[in-house]
Amino acid sequence: MTASSIENHQHLKGLLMHLVAIGGSDAGISAALRARELDPSAEVTVVVADAYPNFSICGIPYYISGEVTHWSNLAHRTYADLEATGMSLRLDTLATSIDVDGRRLGLRDKDGIESWLAYDELVVGTGAVPVRPPIAGLDDLGIGDGVHLLHSMGDTFALTDSLDRIRPRTALIVGAGYVGLEMAEGLTTRGIAVTQVEMLPEVLPTVDPELGALVHAELARHGVDVHTDSTVTRISRTDNGPSRLRVEGIGPHDQLLGWDVDLVLAVVGVRPDTELLVRAGASTGARGAVIVDETMATGRPHVWAAGDCVVTHHRLLGGTYLPLGTTAHKQGRVAGENALGGRARFAGSLGTQVVKVFDLVAARTGLREHEARTAGYTPLTSQARPDDHKAYYPGAQPITIRVTGDARTGKLLGAQLIGARGTETAKRVDTFATALFHGMTVDGMSELDLSYTPPLGSPWDAVQMAAQAWVRQHQLATQRAALRSTGSIMTR
Q: What is the pLDDT of residue 144?
Protein backbone atom coordinates (compact mmCIF):
# COMPACT_ATOMS: atom_id res chain seq x y z
CA MET A 1 0.00 0.00 0.00
CA THR A 2 1.37 3.38 -1.00
CA ALA A 3 1.48 6.41 1.26
CA SER A 4 -0.97 8.21 -1.00
CA SER A 5 -3.58 5.53 -0.41
CA ILE A 6 -3.39 5.60 3.41
CA GLU A 7 -5.87 8.46 3.76
CA ASN A 8 -8.48 6.62 1.69
CA HIS A 9 -7.55 3.39 3.46
CA GLN A 10 -8.47 4.90 6.81
CA HIS A 11 -12.12 4.93 5.74
CA LEU A 12 -12.28 1.30 4.66
CA LYS A 13 -13.24 0.10 8.12
CA GLY A 14 -14.33 3.33 9.75
CA LEU A 15 -12.53 5.42 12.32
CA LEU A 16 -13.56 3.16 15.22
CA MET A 17 -12.14 0.01 13.62
CA HIS A 18 -10.66 -2.30 16.30
CA LEU A 19 -7.94 -4.74 15.30
CA VAL A 20 -6.92 -7.38 17.84
CA ALA A 21 -3.70 -9.34 17.41
CA ILE A 22 -2.94 -12.47 19.44
CA GLY A 23 0.74 -13.07 20.16
CA GLY A 24 3.56 -10.84 21.30
CA SER A 25 6.24 -12.26 19.04
CA ASP A 26 7.10 -11.62 15.39
CA ALA A 27 3.76 -12.12 13.61
CA GLY A 28 1.43 -10.48 16.11
CA ILE A 29 3.61 -7.43 16.72
CA SER A 30 4.33 -7.00 13.00
CA ALA A 31 0.60 -7.04 12.25
CA ALA A 32 -0.08 -4.45 14.95
CA LEU A 33 2.76 -2.19 13.82
CA ARG A 34 1.64 -2.31 10.19
CA ALA A 35 -1.94 -1.50 11.14
CA ARG A 36 -0.90 1.48 13.23
CA GLU A 37 1.45 2.64 10.47
CA LEU A 38 -1.29 2.59 7.84
CA ASP A 39 -4.18 3.86 9.94
CA PRO A 40 -3.30 5.89 13.05
CA SER A 41 -7.02 6.12 13.82
CA ALA A 42 -7.41 2.36 14.14
CA GLU A 43 -7.62 0.93 17.64
CA VAL A 44 -5.08 -1.90 17.93
CA THR A 45 -4.86 -4.29 20.88
CA VAL A 46 -2.22 -7.00 21.23
CA VAL A 47 -2.96 -9.92 23.55
CA VAL A 48 0.24 -11.43 24.94
CA ALA A 49 0.27 -14.65 26.97
CA ASP A 50 3.35 -13.63 28.97
CA ALA A 51 4.99 -10.38 30.06
CA TYR A 52 7.58 -10.19 27.28
CA PRO A 53 6.25 -8.63 24.07
CA ASN A 54 8.52 -8.35 21.03
CA PHE A 55 11.44 -10.26 22.53
CA SER A 56 13.96 -12.00 20.26
CA ILE A 57 13.62 -15.71 20.91
CA CYS A 58 16.41 -16.23 18.36
CA GLY A 59 18.76 -14.32 20.65
CA ILE A 60 18.28 -16.56 23.70
CA PRO A 61 21.41 -18.71 23.10
CA TYR A 62 23.53 -15.56 23.13
CA TYR A 63 22.06 -14.47 26.45
CA ILE A 64 22.82 -17.93 27.85
CA SER A 65 26.41 -17.65 26.58
CA GLY A 66 26.81 -14.23 28.19
CA GLU A 67 27.39 -12.40 24.89
CA VAL A 68 24.07 -10.60 25.43
CA THR A 69 24.67 -9.21 28.89
CA HIS A 70 21.09 -8.77 30.13
CA TRP A 71 17.83 -10.44 29.17
CA SER A 72 16.12 -7.10 28.65
CA ASN A 73 18.49 -6.44 25.73
CA LEU A 74 16.64 -9.16 23.80
CA ALA A 75 13.67 -6.84 23.33
CA HIS A 76 13.34 -5.63 19.73
CA ARG A 77 11.29 -2.78 21.20
CA THR A 78 10.52 -1.95 24.80
CA TYR A 79 7.02 -1.87 26.23
CA ALA A 80 7.21 1.93 26.08
CA ASP A 81 8.32 1.83 22.44
CA LEU A 82 5.33 -0.32 21.52
CA GLU A 83 2.85 1.81 23.43
CA ALA A 84 4.29 4.90 21.77
CA THR A 85 3.03 3.58 18.42
CA GLY A 86 -0.51 3.81 19.78
CA MET A 87 -1.16 0.10 20.28
CA SER A 88 -2.57 -1.27 23.53
CA LEU A 89 -0.88 -4.28 25.15
CA ARG A 90 -2.72 -6.85 27.27
CA LEU A 91 0.13 -8.73 28.96
CA ASP A 92 -0.08 -11.98 30.95
CA THR A 93 -3.40 -12.60 29.22
CA LEU A 94 -4.29 -15.87 27.54
CA ALA A 95 -6.64 -16.01 24.54
CA THR A 96 -8.94 -18.93 25.32
CA SER A 97 -11.54 -18.92 22.54
CA ILE A 98 -12.69 -17.15 19.39
CA ASP A 99 -16.38 -16.38 18.95
CA VAL A 100 -16.29 -16.01 15.17
CA ASP A 101 -19.97 -15.09 14.75
CA GLY A 102 -19.94 -12.62 17.63
CA ARG A 103 -16.52 -11.20 16.69
CA ARG A 104 -15.16 -11.43 20.20
CA LEU A 105 -12.18 -13.04 21.84
CA GLY A 106 -12.30 -14.95 25.10
CA LEU A 107 -9.55 -13.96 27.54
CA ARG A 108 -8.19 -15.10 30.90
CA ASP A 109 -5.81 -12.86 32.83
CA LYS A 110 -3.08 -13.88 35.27
CA ASP A 111 -5.57 -13.82 38.17
CA GLY A 112 -7.84 -16.26 36.37
CA ILE A 113 -10.49 -13.65 35.59
CA GLU A 114 -12.23 -14.34 32.30
CA SER A 115 -13.65 -11.73 29.95
CA TRP A 116 -14.53 -11.02 26.32
CA LEU A 117 -12.78 -8.58 24.00
CA ALA A 118 -14.70 -7.40 20.94
CA TYR A 119 -12.91 -7.01 17.61
CA ASP A 120 -13.65 -5.96 14.06
CA GLU A 121 -10.69 -7.92 12.65
CA LEU A 122 -8.54 -10.55 14.37
CA VAL A 123 -4.96 -11.58 13.58
CA VAL A 124 -3.80 -14.80 15.23
CA GLY A 125 -0.07 -15.23 15.75
CA THR A 126 0.07 -17.96 18.39
CA GLY A 127 3.32 -19.30 16.97
CA ALA A 128 4.69 -22.72 17.85
CA VAL A 129 5.44 -24.75 20.95
CA PRO A 130 8.47 -26.97 21.57
CA VAL A 131 8.17 -30.66 20.81
CA ARG A 132 8.44 -32.73 23.97
CA PRO A 133 10.49 -35.80 22.99
CA PRO A 134 9.24 -39.26 24.03
CA ILE A 135 11.91 -39.89 26.67
CA ALA A 136 11.08 -42.16 29.58
CA GLY A 137 11.28 -40.36 32.90
CA LEU A 138 10.86 -36.91 31.39
CA ASP A 139 7.32 -36.55 32.70
CA ASP A 140 8.32 -37.89 36.12
CA LEU A 141 11.18 -35.41 36.47
CA GLY A 142 9.22 -32.52 35.04
CA ILE A 143 10.59 -29.61 33.08
CA GLY A 144 12.88 -27.43 35.17
CA ASP A 145 15.32 -28.18 37.99
CA GLY A 146 18.04 -29.28 35.61
CA VAL A 147 15.86 -30.62 32.77
CA HIS A 148 14.78 -27.99 30.27
CA LEU A 149 13.05 -27.15 27.02
CA LEU A 150 13.94 -23.83 25.43
CA HIS A 151 11.50 -21.72 23.44
CA SER A 152 10.20 -18.79 25.49
CA MET A 153 11.47 -16.20 27.93
CA GLY A 154 9.93 -18.28 30.72
CA ASP A 155 12.00 -21.27 29.57
CA THR A 156 15.04 -19.00 29.51
CA PHE A 157 14.60 -17.85 33.09
CA ALA A 158 14.07 -21.44 34.25
CA LEU A 159 17.31 -22.45 32.55
CA THR A 160 19.33 -19.53 33.93
CA ASP A 161 17.98 -20.33 37.38
CA SER A 162 19.31 -23.87 37.04
CA LEU A 163 22.63 -22.60 35.74
CA ASP A 164 23.01 -20.24 38.70
CA ARG A 165 21.82 -22.69 41.34
CA ILE A 166 23.29 -25.99 40.13
CA ARG A 167 26.42 -24.50 38.56
CA PRO A 168 26.65 -27.47 36.19
CA ARG A 169 29.97 -28.79 35.00
CA THR A 170 28.37 -31.08 32.41
CA ALA A 171 25.33 -30.83 30.17
CA LEU A 172 23.65 -32.97 27.54
CA ILE A 173 21.71 -31.49 24.62
CA VAL A 174 19.09 -33.61 22.88
CA GLY A 175 18.97 -32.44 19.27
CA ALA A 176 21.51 -30.87 16.90
CA GLY A 177 19.38 -28.54 14.82
CA TYR A 178 19.82 -24.78 14.79
CA VAL A 179 18.97 -24.09 18.44
CA GLY A 180 20.75 -27.20 19.67
CA LEU A 181 23.96 -26.16 17.92
CA GLU A 182 23.73 -22.58 19.18
CA MET A 183 23.18 -23.84 22.70
CA ALA A 184 26.14 -26.23 22.43
CA GLU A 185 28.27 -23.18 21.72
CA GLY A 186 26.57 -21.10 24.42
CA LEU A 187 27.03 -23.66 27.20
CA THR A 188 30.60 -24.41 26.10
CA THR A 189 31.33 -20.68 26.28
CA ARG A 190 30.19 -20.81 29.91
CA GLY A 191 32.80 -23.49 30.62
CA ILE A 192 30.36 -26.42 30.65
CA ALA A 193 31.38 -29.73 29.06
CA VAL A 194 28.67 -30.49 26.49
CA THR A 195 27.48 -33.80 25.07
CA GLN A 196 25.20 -33.54 22.05
CA VAL A 197 22.91 -36.37 20.89
CA GLU A 198 21.26 -36.35 17.46
CA MET A 199 19.04 -39.16 16.19
CA LEU A 200 19.78 -38.47 12.50
CA PRO A 201 23.01 -39.48 10.72
CA GLU A 202 24.59 -36.03 11.02
CA VAL A 203 24.23 -32.74 12.87
CA LEU A 204 22.41 -29.84 11.21
CA PRO A 205 20.13 -32.09 9.14
CA THR A 206 18.85 -29.13 7.08
CA VAL A 207 22.03 -29.42 4.97
CA ASP A 208 23.51 -32.46 3.25
CA PRO A 209 25.31 -34.89 5.59
CA GLU A 210 28.70 -34.17 3.98
CA LEU A 211 28.29 -30.50 4.94
CA GLY A 212 26.85 -31.36 8.33
CA ALA A 213 30.06 -33.31 8.92
CA LEU A 214 32.01 -30.05 8.66
CA VAL A 215 29.85 -28.61 11.44
CA HIS A 216 30.32 -31.83 13.42
CA ALA A 217 34.09 -31.38 13.16
CA GLU A 218 33.81 -27.78 14.36
CA LEU A 219 31.85 -28.92 17.43
CA ALA A 220 34.46 -31.57 18.19
CA ARG A 221 37.27 -29.02 17.75
CA HIS A 222 35.71 -27.01 20.58
CA GLY A 223 35.29 -30.01 22.87
CA VAL A 224 31.65 -30.94 22.24
CA ASP A 225 31.14 -34.73 22.46
CA VAL A 226 28.79 -35.43 19.53
CA HIS A 227 26.79 -38.64 19.11
CA THR A 228 24.84 -39.03 15.85
CA ASP A 229 22.53 -41.88 14.85
CA SER A 230 21.73 -41.95 18.57
CA THR A 231 18.53 -41.60 20.58
CA VAL A 232 18.01 -40.63 24.20
CA THR A 233 15.60 -43.12 25.75
CA ARG A 234 15.54 -42.37 29.49
CA ILE A 235 16.44 -39.67 32.03
CA SER A 236 16.55 -40.32 35.77
CA ARG A 237 18.05 -38.95 38.97
CA THR A 238 21.15 -40.60 40.34
CA ASP A 239 22.51 -41.05 43.86
CA ASN A 240 25.45 -38.75 43.16
CA GLY A 241 23.60 -35.67 44.42
CA PRO A 242 20.27 -33.90 43.96
CA SER A 243 21.36 -32.22 40.73
CA ARG A 244 22.88 -35.24 38.99
CA LEU A 245 21.04 -36.89 36.11
CA ARG A 246 21.52 -40.24 34.43
CA VAL A 247 20.82 -40.17 30.68
CA GLU A 248 20.50 -43.42 28.75
CA GLY A 249 20.32 -43.93 25.02
CA ILE A 250 20.82 -46.19 22.04
CA GLY A 251 23.57 -45.54 19.50
CA PRO A 252 24.52 -47.05 16.14
CA HIS A 253 24.11 -50.82 15.89
CA ASP A 254 21.93 -50.77 19.03
CA GLN A 255 24.88 -49.80 21.21
CA LEU A 256 23.79 -48.90 24.73
CA LEU A 257 24.87 -45.41 25.76
CA GLY A 258 24.91 -43.68 29.13
CA TRP A 259 25.99 -40.36 30.59
CA ASP A 260 25.98 -38.78 34.06
CA VAL A 261 25.37 -35.04 33.67
CA ASP A 262 24.22 -32.06 35.69
CA LEU A 263 21.89 -30.53 33.09
CA VAL A 264 19.73 -31.76 30.19
CA LEU A 265 18.39 -29.52 27.44
CA ALA A 266 15.89 -30.94 24.92
CA VAL A 267 15.62 -28.92 21.71
CA VAL A 268 14.19 -31.23 19.06
CA GLY A 269 11.98 -28.84 17.12
CA VAL A 270 8.58 -27.20 17.35
CA ARG A 271 5.01 -27.82 16.31
CA PRO A 272 2.41 -25.20 15.37
CA ASP A 273 0.19 -23.91 18.19
CA THR A 274 -3.19 -24.14 16.46
CA GLU A 275 -5.68 -25.18 19.13
CA LEU A 276 -7.36 -21.76 19.28
CA LEU A 277 -7.85 -21.55 15.51
CA VAL A 278 -8.88 -25.17 15.06
CA ARG A 279 -11.60 -24.79 17.72
CA ALA A 280 -12.78 -21.75 15.75
CA GLY A 281 -13.20 -23.90 12.64
CA ALA A 282 -9.95 -23.24 10.76
CA SER A 283 -8.57 -26.00 8.52
CA THR A 284 -5.10 -27.49 8.90
CA GLY A 285 -2.51 -28.76 6.45
CA ALA A 286 1.21 -29.58 6.56
CA ARG A 287 2.41 -30.63 10.03
CA GLY A 288 -0.99 -29.63 11.44
CA ALA A 289 -0.45 -25.93 10.70
CA VAL A 290 -3.45 -23.76 9.84
CA ILE A 291 -4.09 -23.23 6.14
CA VAL A 292 -4.03 -19.62 4.98
CA ASP A 293 -4.01 -18.11 1.51
CA GLU A 294 -1.47 -15.58 0.25
CA THR A 295 -3.42 -12.77 1.97
CA MET A 296 -3.10 -14.66 5.30
CA ALA A 297 -6.88 -15.21 5.44
CA THR A 298 -7.93 -18.34 7.33
CA GLY A 299 -11.27 -18.87 5.59
CA ARG A 300 -13.06 -17.84 8.77
CA PRO A 301 -14.70 -14.40 8.48
CA HIS A 302 -12.59 -11.52 9.80
CA VAL A 303 -9.91 -13.92 11.10
CA TRP A 304 -6.36 -13.79 9.78
CA ALA A 305 -3.32 -15.78 10.88
CA ALA A 306 0.44 -15.53 10.43
CA GLY A 307 3.75 -16.88 11.64
CA ASP A 308 4.74 -20.25 13.04
CA CYS A 309 1.15 -21.44 13.48
CA VAL A 310 0.33 -21.41 9.73
CA VAL A 311 1.26 -23.25 6.57
CA THR A 312 3.97 -21.41 4.63
CA HIS A 313 3.82 -20.82 0.89
CA HIS A 314 7.18 -21.96 -0.49
CA ARG A 315 8.02 -20.54 -3.91
CA LEU A 316 9.36 -23.89 -5.14
CA LEU A 317 7.28 -26.36 -3.15
CA GLY A 318 3.89 -24.75 -2.58
CA GLY A 319 2.35 -25.29 0.84
CA THR A 320 4.70 -26.52 3.56
CA TYR A 321 5.48 -25.90 7.22
CA LEU A 322 8.61 -23.83 7.71
CA PRO A 323 8.70 -21.85 10.97
CA LEU A 324 11.14 -18.96 10.57
CA GLY A 325 11.28 -15.54 12.20
CA THR A 326 11.87 -13.79 8.88
CA THR A 327 8.75 -15.40 7.44
CA ALA A 328 6.65 -14.54 10.50
CA HIS A 329 7.59 -10.86 10.24
CA LYS A 330 6.56 -10.72 6.58
CA GLN A 331 3.33 -12.66 7.08
CA GLY A 332 2.35 -10.55 10.09
CA ARG A 333 2.84 -7.38 8.08
CA VAL A 334 0.63 -8.75 5.29
CA ALA A 335 -2.08 -9.80 7.76
CA GLY A 336 -2.06 -6.43 9.51
CA GLU A 337 -2.46 -4.57 6.23
CA ASN A 338 -5.21 -6.80 4.88
CA ALA A 339 -7.14 -6.70 8.15
CA LEU A 340 -7.57 -3.01 7.43
CA GLY A 341 -8.86 -3.72 3.94
CA GLY A 342 -5.59 -3.83 2.00
CA ARG A 343 -4.56 -6.12 -0.84
CA ALA A 344 -1.11 -7.27 0.27
CA ARG A 345 0.16 -10.71 -0.69
CA PHE A 346 2.79 -12.89 0.97
CA ALA A 347 5.29 -13.51 -1.82
CA GLY A 348 6.49 -16.81 -0.40
CA SER A 349 9.52 -18.28 1.33
CA LEU A 350 12.61 -20.10 0.06
CA GLY A 351 13.63 -21.43 3.47
CA THR A 352 16.74 -19.24 3.63
CA GLN A 353 18.52 -19.98 6.91
CA VAL A 354 21.90 -19.41 8.51
CA VAL A 355 23.54 -20.45 11.78
CA LYS A 356 26.86 -19.67 13.46
CA VAL A 357 28.54 -22.58 15.23
CA PHE A 358 31.68 -21.38 17.00
CA ASP A 359 33.90 -20.11 14.15
CA LEU A 360 31.87 -21.67 11.34
CA VAL A 361 28.81 -20.40 9.46
CA ALA A 362 26.36 -22.75 7.73
CA ALA A 363 23.61 -21.52 5.41
CA ARG A 364 21.09 -22.80 2.91
CA THR A 365 18.34 -21.59 0.62
CA GLY A 366 15.93 -23.30 -1.73
CA LEU A 367 15.95 -27.06 -2.21
CA ARG A 368 18.46 -29.82 -1.64
CA GLU A 369 18.67 -32.51 -4.30
CA HIS A 370 16.34 -35.03 -2.67
CA GLU A 371 13.79 -32.30 -1.89
CA ALA A 372 13.87 -31.10 -5.50
CA ARG A 373 13.42 -34.63 -6.84
CA THR A 374 10.41 -35.20 -4.59
CA ALA A 375 8.94 -31.93 -5.88
CA GLY A 376 9.15 -33.17 -9.49
CA TYR A 377 12.33 -31.49 -10.67
CA THR A 378 15.29 -33.23 -12.28
CA PRO A 379 18.03 -31.97 -9.98
CA LEU A 380 21.77 -32.07 -10.41
CA THR A 381 24.23 -30.90 -7.74
CA SER A 382 27.85 -29.84 -7.80
CA GLN A 383 30.27 -28.77 -5.09
CA ALA A 384 33.01 -26.14 -5.22
CA ARG A 385 35.40 -24.55 -2.70
CA PRO A 386 36.20 -21.04 -3.97
CA ASP A 387 38.09 -18.62 -1.75
CA ASP A 388 36.15 -15.79 -0.14
CA HIS A 389 38.58 -13.23 -1.62
CA LYS A 390 41.71 -13.09 -3.76
CA ALA A 391 44.31 -15.55 -2.47
CA TYR A 392 47.17 -13.06 -2.74
CA TYR A 393 45.54 -10.85 -0.11
CA PRO A 394 46.21 -12.31 3.37
CA GLY A 395 43.52 -14.29 5.13
CA ALA A 396 41.70 -15.86 2.18
CA GLN A 397 39.59 -18.84 3.24
CA PRO A 398 37.55 -21.31 1.18
CA ILE A 399 33.76 -21.54 1.28
CA THR A 400 32.26 -24.96 0.56
CA ILE A 401 29.29 -24.33 -1.75
CA ARG A 402 26.82 -26.87 -3.11
CA VAL A 403 24.62 -25.70 -5.98
CA THR A 404 21.54 -27.59 -7.10
CA GLY A 405 19.96 -26.85 -10.48
CA ASP A 406 17.37 -28.42 -12.76
CA ALA A 407 18.76 -30.57 -15.57
CA ARG A 408 15.90 -29.78 -17.94
CA THR A 409 15.84 -26.00 -17.61
CA GLY A 410 19.14 -25.05 -15.98
CA LYS A 411 17.07 -23.23 -13.35
CA LEU A 412 18.68 -22.64 -9.96
CA LEU A 413 16.93 -24.73 -7.30
CA GLY A 414 19.03 -24.28 -4.17
CA ALA A 415 22.39 -23.70 -2.54
CA GLN A 416 24.17 -24.75 0.66
CA LEU A 417 27.24 -22.97 2.02
CA ILE A 418 29.73 -23.65 4.82
CA GLY A 419 32.44 -21.12 5.56
CA ALA A 420 34.51 -19.66 8.35
CA ARG A 421 33.11 -16.68 10.18
CA GLY A 422 34.29 -13.61 8.30
CA THR A 423 33.86 -15.10 4.83
CA GLU A 424 30.50 -13.36 4.41
CA THR A 425 28.80 -16.75 3.99
CA ALA A 426 25.55 -15.34 5.39
CA LYS A 427 25.44 -12.59 2.78
CA ARG A 428 26.48 -14.89 -0.04
CA VAL A 429 23.55 -17.21 0.63
CA ASP A 430 21.40 -14.10 0.23
CA THR A 431 22.73 -13.71 -3.31
CA PHE A 432 21.54 -17.23 -4.09
CA ALA A 433 18.21 -16.50 -2.38
CA THR A 434 17.71 -13.38 -4.50
CA ALA A 435 18.49 -15.32 -7.67
CA LEU A 436 16.04 -18.05 -6.62
CA PHE A 437 13.33 -15.53 -5.84
CA HIS A 438 13.54 -14.19 -9.38
CA GLY A 439 13.73 -17.60 -11.07
CA MET A 440 17.24 -17.27 -12.46
CA THR A 441 19.20 -20.06 -14.11
CA VAL A 442 22.46 -21.27 -12.62
CA ASP A 443 24.33 -19.99 -15.68
CA GLY A 444 22.60 -16.62 -15.37
CA MET A 445 24.29 -15.99 -12.03
CA SER A 446 27.52 -15.26 -13.91
CA GLU A 447 25.82 -12.20 -15.38
CA LEU A 448 25.18 -10.59 -11.99
CA ASP A 449 27.12 -7.36 -11.43
CA LEU A 450 28.64 -8.08 -8.04
CA SER A 451 31.17 -5.98 -6.15
CA TYR A 452 34.89 -6.68 -6.12
CA THR A 453 38.01 -5.60 -4.29
CA PRO A 454 40.87 -8.03 -3.49
CA PRO A 455 40.48 -7.97 0.34
CA LEU A 456 36.77 -8.83 0.07
CA GLY A 457 36.16 -10.77 -3.11
CA SER A 458 37.26 -11.73 -6.60
CA PRO A 459 36.32 -10.55 -10.11
CA TRP A 460 34.09 -13.62 -10.18
CA ASP A 461 32.52 -13.80 -6.72
CA ALA A 462 32.54 -17.11 -4.86
CA VAL A 463 28.84 -17.65 -5.63
CA GLN A 464 29.54 -17.17 -9.34
CA MET A 465 32.52 -19.54 -9.30
CA ALA A 466 30.31 -22.17 -7.65
CA ALA A 467 27.62 -21.60 -10.29
CA GLN A 468 30.20 -21.92 -13.06
CA ALA A 469 31.40 -25.20 -11.57
CA TRP A 470 27.83 -26.50 -11.80
CA VAL A 471 27.59 -25.43 -15.45
CA ARG A 472 30.92 -27.08 -16.35
CA GLN A 473 29.98 -30.31 -14.61
CA HIS A 474 26.43 -30.58 -15.91
CA GLN A 475 26.39 -28.64 -19.17
CA LEU A 476 26.21 -31.73 -21.38
CA ALA A 477 23.41 -33.23 -19.29
CA THR A 478 21.36 -30.02 -19.43
CA GLN A 479 21.88 -29.64 -23.17
CA ARG A 480 20.76 -33.21 -23.81
CA ALA A 481 17.74 -32.73 -21.53
CA ALA A 482 16.76 -29.58 -23.41
CA LEU A 483 17.08 -31.32 -26.79
CA ARG A 484 15.14 -34.31 -25.52
CA SER A 485 12.31 -32.08 -24.30
CA THR A 486 12.01 -30.50 -27.77
CA GLY A 487 12.21 -33.88 -29.54
CA SER A 488 15.42 -32.87 -31.34
CA ILE A 489 17.22 -36.09 -30.42
CA MET A 490 16.01 -39.64 -30.30
CA THR A 491 16.09 -41.70 -27.14
CA ARG A 492 16.25 -45.44 -26.84
A: 72
